[in-house]
Amino acid sequence: MALNKSISNPIMFIGGCHVTGYPFEGMNGSFSEIACNLMGVPLSSNNMMSLVTLTSISTVMKELENKSLDTLVLQLGNFETSRGFSVSPLSRRKAPTPKERSEVKLPSSTPEIQSFKAYRPSLIWDITNLLRLQLSIFLGDSYFSEEVFYTKLYNFCEAISLLKIPQVILLSPLPCADRVFQRNRKIVSKFYPAIAAKFGFTYVDAITPLMLESSKYDIYADAFHLSLKGHKILGNLVANSIR
Question: What predicted TM-score, i.e. pTM, was given to this entire model?
């Protein structure tokens, strides 16, 4: 059942590759599409801006300058927190083939999520992942700076606040199966509520609900990206946060 929220002007989503649902693009499986389907609100591809980093603010501002929006959803910080001791390329799931895409059917509204096989890392990968985390904690992580991250996130949100969009939703970083990157995301997640409050944004904690709904790795498509189940959970969170 749609939530029947009344939004007179478009809603826009800006962030990383999760905005368009990687690796499930084109299947109505992104959290952006799921949220809008639940609300009965149309979503144009022009209102999904992905691969945005915290240094992309000039590009984002140019994109937004001629748009009239009621709601802007920001999914930021995953790229900047994906730093640390090297990670095996085997941990990244390949994008689905055209045949796999054709086998997944998602209705245009209130989608019932069907998933590919849940992410199942090998025992070797899991052990290596744990060792990388311990090294990161013991040696410190020169690849990642809390202070630099905070400054970039603050500056990005300050620029967005100047646009006077009625509601801006700031999502926390999204969880991932990589332990080092997940640790980074939990560390910086403390900045999001304060920055959201500073600029009058709506803060949405995505890490806690996703982890609570997780059965081991089933919310992940690979070590770094959400599965269709993960996108459905996130889409519901966003839909219920829109005024």
Answer: 0.79
